[in-house]
Amino acid sequence: MSTPTKASRTGGAASSTRSGAASAAKASTGPGRESGDRKRSLPLMLTMGLLAVLMAAPLFWMLSTSLKSTNEMASRTLNLLPRDPTTEGFSSILGAPATPVGTWFFNSLLAATLHTILVLLVAATAAYALARLDFPGKKLLTAVILATIFVPPISLLIPNYNIVSQLGWLDNLVAIVVPGAAGAFGVFFLRQFFLSLPAELEEAALIDGASRWTIFRTVIIPLSGGPLATLALLSFLTNWNDFLWPLYVLFSPDKLTLQPGLSTLQGAYSTDYSTIMAGGVIAAVPVLILFAISQRFVIEGVSRSGLKG
């Protein structure tokens, strides 16, 4: 009678082990496991769906109201959808000489774009200096800059107005482009990301004879696409949606931006809500498109800059 060799016994044990591991893996990823995962994720999905509905409801109501007629808006019946959709509100706001919405839109787009470029230039250079360079008073300067985040913006309204007035920038788009370009948030945001980059990248470039400016331009900036896109989006939206400051420094109808310009549509004794909502749709569409395009960079930039929740 023959006896199994040591190799055959070892092969049988290994085959049994692989079979057991495969069975365990199959059991752990079987229908029961998947069903349990779905049940656990159901409350989260319902919560996220409810939040999505709450966020989309004002946009839907704005769009619906912009398509209602003046008579329907004056009725006592509240309709979620317009009974007879019409573009009367858009025709009224786009065709009236007293409301140059096209000019306001261009002014907002130009001011927000220039402001965003200026914010990126100032914040990126300042953040790199605070994150990578060594100089006397660096910690104190960083603390002072970060402390300005806690200063209420409304408290700077009158000082900023006096400065802009002395510079002769009143009733000019420069007045809403330059102020606020050196905000502390952008510096802090990019500084956090620059600190997370490995120092070996800069050391290798320094050994190769690169200057600090060359390192910043050819090494740091190409690696900072996500955070820079996030800061650009936030800066653009902040300037685009700003209402109070442009209302104080812009006076001429052809110099107004979209937000203060739309406020002139509200009369002293009556309000045409369909026209105002049509203006709101015009103001919201570019922002929604911009966010839809850049949302991937926003998520990446926030997660890589140490600002995760």
Q: Would you give an account of this structure?
A:
- With 309 residues, this protein is mainly alpha-helical.
- It folds into 2 domains: 29-55; 99-304, Orthogonal Bundle (MetI-like fold).
- 72% of the residues lie in helices and 0% in strands.
Count of domains: 2
Note the total helix count.
15
Estimate the strand proportion. Answer: under 5%
- Kindly provide the radius of gyration, computed on alpha-carbon positions and rounded to a whole number of angstroms: 29 Å
CATH architecture of the largest domain: Orthogonal Bundle
CATH superfamily of the largest domain: MetI-like
Mean pLDDT: 82
| Biggest sheet overview | none
Structural class: mainly alpha
Helix content: over 70%
Determine the oligomeric state from the structure: single chain
Strand-and-helix sequence, N→C?
HHHHHHHHHHHHHHH
Q: Give me the CATH fold name of the largest domain.
A: MetI-like fold
Number of DSSP E strands: 0
Low-confidence stretches: 1-14
The CATH class assignment of the largest domain is: Mainly Alpha
Categorize the overall geometry.
globular
Distance between the termini: 70 Å
List strands and helices in order, with pairings.
Blueprint: H1 6-28, H2 31-66, H3 70-74, H4 88-95, H5 101-132, H6 138-147, H7 157-167, H8 174-177, H9 184-196, H10 199-207, H11 212-220, H12 225-241, H13 244-249, H14 258-263, H15 273-304
